[in-house]
Write a structure and sequence with these properties.
Distance between the termini of chain A: 9 Å
CATH architecture of chain B: 2-Layer Sandwich
Strand content of chain B: 15-25%
Number of strands of chain B: 10
CATH topology of chain B: Alpha-Beta Plaits
Order of helices and strands of chain A: HHHHHHHHHH
Structural class of chain A: mainly alpha
Helix content of chain A: 55-70%
Radius of gyration of chain B: 18 Å
Largest sheet of chain A: none
Number of domains of chain B: 1
Order of helices and strands of chain B: EHEEHEEHEHEHHEHEE
Strand content of chain A: under 5%
Largest interface: B-C, 56 and 65 residues
Number of helices of chain B: 7
Oligomer: heterotrimer
Shape of chain A: globular
Largest sheet of chain B: 4 strands, mixed
Strand order of the largest sheet of chain B: 8-1-10-9
Structural class of chain B: alpha+beta
């Protein structure tokens, strides 16, 4: 048994990807809202809060927290350094945008947030020791789920009008597609078998269920509003609840998947040897082999 | 130029873990941390079964993924190929551990002792707080190599300049030396035998060669 | 790395002899007075076949030294009640009180006589693992010698659970107490369960690795894929305890499926008793005047005594002999007139005629073609007729070998296996020659340091064999020891090691359930125990524990608390491996596979001061001798060589003054000087200080002396093979003696005394034992066997965390190994808790599901289930010893059992609670 579940990045590290993803998605949605004249300052502040919370959790996890500033030393190749540098611009500029309500600032912040989220995705992709993270399809997945989570939270912290329901639904569908592509990718990677097993087990199915339920509720809320359909017993206040519930599930589902991805489904590569050694003469037992 | 590499002859290895123990003791690694260990792998279906013992550890890659991802430049690479960790720079983020395809790195957050409650005299004598909270891994016993070469000794040939695992290997499975020396023992060993390196498709260019058969005629 | 300001570094030479595969040389690195690591002894690389290296176990010695659970002061028991559930109430006492307490009892015993009313020694002693404690007990052997009669009958597993039957038969047939392939020269090895890559030791592991590179083919015949099987060219998964059929079929194949001239006929004719003529009564036909066994001389066409010069012996054939005598049991001389005779070789062929590979294949679950092919490969590689130069001497070259392992060469079936593997070698002349099967050492004969010197001419053209008498006058009707070795096991003889090599489990069994025909053996009044833990390492460990609890006074040399010294009255903390001084012999040929081109001595110098109040065993021994009034006898024993070298010899005298109590360094200084004087014939004398710097001293050992063959040729002797006429006679005599006493409970064992071993249903004995225990064999469908991993082959490493940590890389550590198909049928996955049960008990552990194991077999590595030893007691590992019974019915004629039992297997929810059976 050469493959082990990694035990260094726990829920605190997962929290960074959760906070970073939801936060970036929320910031991007807030900037879009700013550009369209919708409420955005609360959402922007909340998004920054998520990002900051995530980074704080990481700070709590590293072995030498008082050397944290060393994280900036390797922009040439390290996505973690780049993530830090972007965050270094994102947070102050974001605070400025919240304080001043500047739309232009909000848009720049959103670009930084997108960059931040991209760095997070690339951090995982560069982790060659964990096949489930190394999987190429993880980049669109991280991007899409960040957007789906953030746009879902925006329905609660910003506005839940038709436009934003549609945006959240679109982000959610993108996430669906990204998830399916990621799973298909895992299934084709022999080294990811144990990770796949985690994603087939009950906790993952629960998260997936939440994801689909969230999509459903958002779609229902959108349909209710868009078609002007009045369901018996569904008041405008009820439609808002559908939107909020859908948004919350969209976020929670993403958090659940990321928590599993980081803390439970991350197995190291096995040792793989392509040839079995000969042991003495009289007929070689050498043969090609690879470990499950 | 010089590049130090390790060669493990899988025909010889018996899985005894002598190298595992020699490394642990020589480098005073804490409980649970093994810079060198030997895997026990099986392939086939009864009764046509193979069981293979595979020494693993840091492969001292020419393209180390750990160095690529390290945010603090704590992970570095010497001119002779040895991949290093500067314990004073490392922030203990464990990213390098995630990046290593060979599961070669470890990190411990607090000091632990073999017998639990307190350090033995030997553990107290070797305690090094700089290794707490940072990534650690096989160093190819760089300290021994440097001290040895300074005295004109040859790593891989002279025991004092050679990694402790190689010195301890009772079956002769482990060999060490400069692969760039064209007539040296490592180059000869690799020229005369069939070998592979692990996870070559990752593009890491590992400095750890596994021999599985003698050379083709 | 940390760099304290001033660091004093010493590299202290030492040896490791914690297991029988040693001794090997090592260096202890000491920094500022603290031992920090073990390293090889690189200076020995040119003389040690393992390049001066030591195995994984030695690297645990630093942790062993600084183990916080060590007993570091003498202790005495305050709770008089003994038992697993009784707290001994150990309290620390002074050395004076401890030693005076023991000495007072010793003096009291001496005043009353060393033997009790049953004629048994009042003092008993048990040491573990194959004599290796002797290399850690300083001058204690001198104390034991000074004392006199001691009962070594109580075993801890060695002697019955080891390669025991082969110890006795191997030493009998070719001075091979232990046996190895001549790996350096061989080309083909048939290994029935020998686990070289685990327990062969540093020298063997290196040599076999070199052999693999060279292209040597080893066929590992074993029910599971051990590391040795993994490192072999071929694995044959044989059904447990069917190896006799396999090996007999190989003998059959060589005799009946290949041309006779393909065998080594000159070797058979001249170096074995193959041409000896056998009469109708089964005994050698002998010359009526000289009583020499006859052979048929083809030159004259007549029977002649075997040593007739110029005779051309007929290897096989049936003849009519006009006049001869046979010597039957109890010196019955039977005249033989015109009797039908056949040669021993023909008798052998007749006896194995039915053992075809097809027959064996069904019993062993091995395809008959595989058996045939192996026989053919063996023959092909034998190079009959070829020679090789060894250090200038020309010797036969026969690069094929057969070796056996535990559970094959002990217990029922072992006689057949040992005989067959020796005959396979003999048929191709590969016994005791380069490339072949070699004995490595002797323990029943002397001198131990040179087995060749133990070869003396005996009767009938064979080596002398010092059997215990089975004659009417001299048979020891009343046992002299509690395992009755001289009474029950003639072949074990009566040399100093013989008792410990007797049926040591009988001592435990008889302590509660003695045969009515003998006086009930009182328990010994004092039992010394050192480096032994029978409560873990024997069978039916619960019963052993109860037996030990009945011992009135136990002195345990204690490392930590353990399951055996839990029953002790006094604990004495001896200074351990790195803390004490001793000089031992190294090199030459030793136990497992240690053929050196040198031999000599090596020092274990103290690397660090003893922890706490621990004291050097030599000091303890001297103090005990002094306080017990034995000082002069003790010093005399030392002067005679009890510490490894006689202190006086030709041209040197380092004798110790007899009336003084000498300190540790004085004693070993004398031994160092005497040993080097002896080895160098006076040319070089080195003292203790020299050894503390240099570690070892060796002189050349002739490689020719690895082989017994030249000695046999030089003395004109034959190997006592194939026909076991002596054993046949001894068996009948032993039967008569026992029946004269009305003893019939050893009758099954008498069945083993046959002249040519025959197959009997060996596995069925273990099935029957289930019925004897009141069980239904169908409820116990699987074979339970054991194995080892190198970190735990011996040395009581169970309490050393480093060993546990590194062993976790091995798939079977602390587990129950189960075949994948069997596991699937029972719903068991790797990591699940399972229970292995026999009628006497159950053990639980985590499953390791593998492909490399027979579906009808489960394997439990190691010996665990500790309940007192610190660290080990928290491992929750299973142990086969819990479920294997102590059984007379499963004891063979040499007094051995085997680690095999029929078991049931099931998945359980959790490990058993502590203390549950």
């Amino acid at each position: 048994m050469a493959s082990r579940r990694q035990r260094y990045w726990d829920l605190r590290a997962a929290g960074n990807f959760i906070g970073g993803g939801t936060g970036a998605g929320l910031i991007i949605t807030a900037a879009l809202a700013a550009a369209m004249g919708a409420p955005f300052r609360l959402a922007l502040a909340l998004g920054l809060g998520f990002v900051a919370a995530g980074l704080s959790l990481v700070w709590l996890e590293i072995g030498k927290p008082w050397r944290a500033l060393n994280v900036f030393f390797h922009p040439r190749t390290s996505w973690m350094t780049r993530e830090g540098i972007v965050a270094g611009g994102l947070v102050p500029l974001g605070l400025f945008a919240v304080a001043t309500g500047s739309t232009a600032a909000a848009i720049v912040v959103a670009l930084l947030a997108a960059g931040f989220l991209f760095c997070q995705a690339r951090i995982l992709r560069a982790a060659r020791g964990i096949p489930a993270w190394r999987q190429a399809e993880i980049v669109p997945l991280i991007l899409a789920t960040g957007l789906a989570e953030g746009s879902g939270v925006y329905l609660i912290a910003g506005a839940h009008s038709l436009r934003w329901l549609a945006f959240a639904l679109l982000a959610g569908l993108l996430r669906e597609a990204a998830w399916l592509a990621y799973r298909a990718g895992l299934a084709g990677t022999a080294a990811a078998a144990r990770s796949l097993a985690v994603f087939d087990a009950a906790p993952a199915r629960l998260a997936r269920g939440a994801q689909l339920a969230g999509l459903g509720l958002i779609a229902l809320a959108l349909a209710t509003g868009a078609l002007g359909v009045t369901f018996p017993g569904v008041t405008p206040w009820g439609a808002a609840v559908l939107a909020w519930a859908g948004g919350a599930l969209a976020a929670l589902a993403g958090w659940g998947v990321k928590a599993l991805l980081i803390a439970r489904a991350a197995f190291t590569r096995t040792a793989a040897i392509p040839m079995v050694p000969t042991r003495g003469g009289g007929g070689s037992r050498a043969r090609q082999t690879s470990q499950p | 130029m010089t590049r130090y590499v390790m060669v493990a002859d899988l025909r010889r290895c018996v899985g005894c873990q002598t190298c595992t123990a020699a490394c642990k003791e020589g480098n005073a690694t804490p409980p649970g941390v093994q810079w060198r260990r030997v895997l026990d792998l099986e392939a086939g279906t009864y009764p046509d079964v193979n069981r293979v013992f595979v020494p693993v550890g840091c492969q001292h890659c020419a393209n180390p993924p750990c160095m690529e991802v390290c945010p603090s430049t704590a992970t570095g690479q010497r001119a002779d190929g040895i991949v290093t960790i500067d314990y004073d720079l490392c922030i203990g983020c464990s990213y390098c551990i995630m990046a290593c395809p060979y599961d070669a790195r470890s990190l411990v957050d607090r000091t632990e002792y073999a017998f639990g409650e307190a350090a033995t005299a030997a553990e107290a004598a070797r305690a090094d707080r700089r290794t707490i909270g940072v990534a650690t891994k096989c160093t190819f016993c760089a300290g021994r190599i440097d001290a040895g070469t300074a005295r004109g000794l040859v790593p891989g040939q002279d025991p004092e300049a050679t990694p402790l695992c190689v010195n301890s290997c009772i079956s002769g499975a482990l060999s060490f030396g400069d692969i760039e020396d064209p007539t040296g023992p490592i180059a000869t060993l690799l020229a005369e035998n069939q070998w592979f390196r692990m996870h070559e498709s990752e593009g890491t260019e590992p400095g750890f060669y596994y021999i599985w058969d003698k050379g083709k005629l | 790395m940390s760099t304290p300001a001033a660091r004093e570094i010493r590299n202290v030479p030492s040896y490791c002899y914690n297991c029988v595969a040693g001794p090997d040389l090592m260096t202890v690195r000491v920094e500022n007075g603290v031992a920090t690591r073990i390293e090889p002894c690189h200076a020995a690389a040119t003389i040690h076949p393992g390049l001066g290296r030591v195995c994984v176990k030695a690297f645990g010695l630093v942790q062993k030294t600084y183990n916080p659970h060590r007993v570091l002061a003498p202790m005495k028991r305050t709770n008089p009640r003994k038992g697993r559930d009784e707290d001994p109430g150990f309290v620390a006492i002074s050395w004076d009180e401890a030693l005076d307490t023991i000495a007072a009892r010793l003096r009291d015993i001496r005043a009353r006589g060393l033997l009790d009313d049953a004629g048994l020694p009042r003092v008993a002693a048990t040491f573990g693992h194959g004599g290796t404690p002797q290399s850690y007990m300083g001058t204690f052997p001198a104390f034991l010698s000074a004392w006199g009669a001691i009962d070594y009958s109580f075993g801890s597993g060695q002697g019955v659970k080891c390669v025991h039957s082969e110890h006795l038969y191997g030493e009998f047939w070719h001075r091979g107490f232990t046996v190895a392939a001549d790996t350096v020269h061989t080309r083909y090895i048939i290994s029935c369960g020998t686990n070289v890559e685990v327990s062969g030791g540093v020298c063997a592991v290196r040599r076999h690795a070199d052999a693999r590179i060279r292209g040597v083919k080893r066929v590992q015949v074993e029910p599971h894929l051990s590391p040795t099987g993994a490192c072999s060219a071929e694995w044959v998964p044989i059904k447990p305890k069917t190896d006799p059929a396999f090996l007999l079929a190989l003998v059959h194949a060589l005799l009946f499926e290949h041309e006779r001239r393909a065998l080594d006929l000159p070797f058979l004719r001249e170096r074995t008793a193959s041409p000896y003529l056998i009469g109708p009564d089964g005994y050698y036909l002998r010359d009526p005047t000289s009583f020499k066994p006859l052979l048929w001389d083809e030159a004259t066409g007549a029977p002649v005594p075997f040593d007739t010069p110029g005779a051309r012996p007929a290897l096989e054939g049936r003849f009519t002999i006009a006049e001869a005598v046979t010597r039957g049991p109890d010196d019955e001389v039977r005249p033989q007139h015109n009797v039908a005779a056949r040669t021993a070789f023909t008798a052998m062929a007749d006896a194995v005629q039915g053992y075809t590979p097809d027959w064996a294949g069904g019993i062993c679950d091995i395809p008959a073609e595989t058996i045939r092919r192996i026989a053919a490969e063996f023959l092909e590689n034998a190079c009959i007729g070829e020679t090789i130069e060894i250090d200038g001497e020309t010797l036969p070259f026969r690069p094929v070998a057969v070796t056996l392992g535990k559970t094959v060469n002990n217990g029922w079936g072992a006689y057949e296996c040992c005989w067959a593997r020796t005959m396979l070698a003999t048929l191709v002349g590969a016994l005791e020659v380069p490339g072949g099967t070699l004995g490595t050492t002797v323990r029943l004969n002397r001198p131990h340091e040179n087995r060749l010197k133990s070869v003396q001419p005996g009767e009938d053209g064979f080596m002398v064999a010092h059997f215990n008498s089975t004659g009417r006058k001299d048979w020891l009707a009343v046992p002299s020891g509690r395992n009755a070795h001289r009474t029950l096991v003639p072949i074990v003889g009566n040399s100093p090691w013989a008792q410990a090599l007797g049926p040591t489990h009988l001592a435990w069994m008889f302590s509660s359930d003695a045969p009515k025909e003998w006086p009930a053996p009182p328990l010994p009044e004092i039992w010394f125990a050192f480096r032994t833990n029978p409560a873990i390492s024997f069978w039916d460990t619960a019963e052993i524990g109860r037996a030990m609890a009945r011992m009135p006074f136990i002195v345990a040399f204690a490392y930590t608390f353990d399951e055996t010294n839990h029953m002790a009255d006094i604990l004495l903390p001896d200074a351990t491996d790195l803390e004490s001084t001793q000089l031992i012999r190294v090199g030459g040929t030793k136990f497992v596979e240690q053929h050196w081109a040198h031999h000599g001595v090596a020092l274990r110098a103290p690397a660090v001061a003893p922890q706490g109040e621990a004291r050097d065993f030599t000091w303890i021994s001297t103090e005990l001798a002094r306080r017990a009034g034995l000082l002069e006898r003790y010093n005399a024993a030392l002067n005679r060589g009890a510490a490894g070298a006689a202190l006086k010899g030709e041209g040197y005298d380092f004798s110790l003054a007899p009336e003084q109590a000498h300190d540790v360094d004085t004693i070993w200084n004398a031994v160092c000087q005497a040993a080097t004087a002896e080895l160098s014939h006076g040319a070089e004398v080195h003292d203790l200080d020299w050894f503390k710097r240099n570690g070892h001293y060796v002189v050349p050992f002739k490689r020719e002396d690895w082989y017994l063959y030249p000695t046999m040729v030089r003395l004109g002797l034959r190997f006592e093979l194939p026909y076991q006429e002596r054993l046949l006679r001894v068996g009948v005599e032993l039967g008569r003696r026992l029946h004269e006493q009305g003893i019939h409970w050893w009758d099954h064992q008498l069945d083993e005394y046959v002249a040519i071993p025959q197959w009997h249903d060996v596995p069925e004995r273990w099935v029957q034992s289930i019925r004897d225990m009141g069980g239904d064999p169908d409820d116990y469908p699987l074979w339970g066997i054991t194995t080892k991993v190198m970190p735990y082959t011996t040395g009581n490493n169970a309490g050393i965390p480093l060993m546990h940590e590194v062993s976790a890389n091995l798939r079977n550590h602390g587990a129950v190994v189960i075949n994948a198909t069997t596991a699937a049928s029972l719903g068991i996955a790797t990591g699940d808790w399972v229970e292995v049960r026999s009628p006497i008990g159950a053990t639980r552990g985590r499953a390791a599901v593998v492909q490399g194991c027979r579906p009808d077999t489960v394997v439990i590595p190691g010996q665990f289930e500790h309940w007192k030893t610190p660290f080990a007691k928290d491992l929750a590992f299973p142990s086969l010893n819990t479920v294997v019974p102590l059984s007379l019915a499963l004891t063979d004629a040499t007094g051995s059992g085997a680690d095999v039992v029929r078991v049931a297997l099931r998945k359980v929810a959790a490990p058993a609670e502590a203390g549950a059976a």
